[in-house]
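G., the chain you wanted modeled:
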Amino acid sequence: MSGRWDGLRHAFRLSLGKRGVEREVSDELRFHLEERIEELMATGLSRAEAERDARARFGDLPAIGAMVEQIDRRIVRRRTVGDSLEALWRDVRFGARALIKSPGFTIVAVLTLALGIGANTAIFSAVNRVLLHPLNVPLLDRIYQVYQNMPGLHLEKGQLTPSEAESLLARKDLFEVFAGIDGTEFNLTGAGEPQRLAGARTIGRFFDIFSLTPAIGHFYHAEDSQNGNTRVAVLSNAFWRSWAGGDPGVVGRSIELSGQTYQVIGVMPAGFDYRQSTQVYVPLEVTQRMREQGPWMITALARVRSGETPEQFTTGMARLTAEFTKDPAKAPSPEYHFSFSGESLSDRLAGDLKPLLVLLMVAVSLVLLIACANVANLQLVRGSGRARELAVRAAMGAGRWPIMRQLIVENALLAGAGGALGLGLGYLAIRSLRGLQATRFPALRDLHLDPPVLGFAAAVTVLAVLVFGIAPTLRAGRTS
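Predicted structure as tokens:
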């Protein structure tokens, strides 16, 4: 009896394959079940009694069969994965040896790809930083910068006066959130040597425009510009760390700015890079003198409602212009041709770089395509010299797929080497682009190899494998 069960356990360990597994297991179990029924009948039991006793001992046959099938499929899958990895590693070693034996071809191909991938990586880093993600804030596509224009005074895209900003603050029908900011400087006094600080005075819901959450403490409110409670300050994250050593207890402390005492109520979140150099934010106290003299000092920002199109925003600006020009208290002289306008903050931050970067991105993409075409031609020429080798491999039993797989692996090794070198060249190009910030393009000062740029470089490398490797691989697959 024990021998029969050993045989049954041995049957369960058989590798039955993916097809017909359930049928073979059922047949095997049925065979042993019938043998057991015959043994019981030989002892004097009836057929029904013997069958009932045997089934009770064997258990649920369909469940056993399904379990055996599941185990077998796992074994087959593991063997398949293991065989595939072993074959892939064998192709990698063979491909590396083949490339080493052709150093001239390998060096030219790698350098060609590196130039194309490096150029694309560098330019995409600028496109990503300047055009796609100029600020790391939510709802950026709904934020606009508002200007006043007076061609009669040669003023285009000018800042607003405090009285104009106050008027726009009340226009809930045009904007979801409105705010203004005025750059200034403070002298940090009261402790140690005086220090010059870059500051900003804000009016309206400046922090709400960018949906900011303070690192510690809280922000001041829009009403603080009107109700006299203007002696509060919010520190930038970098200044908080340098001045207060990152101490959370800074909230509630006093800071002396240009001879006046302010109470620190909060700290900006890390990574907020609009007006990156600003170290201290305070409310703007709009005085009567400011209202009367009307200095053009407010950089106005507005966030429109969800779903509002740029055309609707432009229409709103035209309506606002018409209302101002009809109001004698607000209307400038007609010869100035006064008007309000605006543009998305993304476009404003990109400035003159937008058309230049788009043009450069198209150009480096063409450079990469030309590089891939050149490498493909080199591969075809090299493939002609390897025709005898491939024919011998095919004659010895290598199928079409193993030969094509080998060439795909070689192409991947070439592209990987070109991508790694291109990444290094791209890093050097990015450093050069960052150097332009001191002259004309300050938006390029924060370029670096961040995850999106690295992901783009990897995608370009994979694309290069497909572009320059498809023709030689298909041609090799037709080897007779």
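Residues 39 and 50 are 8 Å apart (CA to CA).

Shout if anything looks off.
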